[in-house]
Amino acid sequence: MGEIAIAATERIIRKGSGLRVSESASKALAEFLDEEGVRISQQAALFAKHAKRKTITNEDIKLALKK
Questions:
Q1: How far apart are CA 36 and CA 10, in angstroms?
Q2: Which of 9, 16, 35, 64 could pair with 30 in a Cys bridge, judged by C-beta atoms 3.0 to 4.6 Å apart?
């Protein structure tokens, strides 16, 4: 399991749906968000390195999300 808390994903699902949420649904979303977060971070790191920076910026994240 990744770094994203199950309780946080449960709140996200409830906020978006207004329905009760099973633990397995919360875990599934947490796993997906963790994997996507890693993928986006890796892409953002490439943008930062290309710009000869050691710090990922908000703009790097935005560019990675567009890609």
A1: 17
A2: 9
The model carries a pTM of 0.85
Residues 27-46 as b or e (16 or more Cβ within 10 Å = b): eebbeebeeeeeebeebbee
Find the domain containing 35 and state its range: 6-66
Domain harbouring 62, CATH code: 1.10.20.10
pLDDT digits (tens, 9 = 90+) for 9-41: 999 999 999 999 999 999 999 999 999 999 999
Residue corresponding to tokens 């993928």: 39
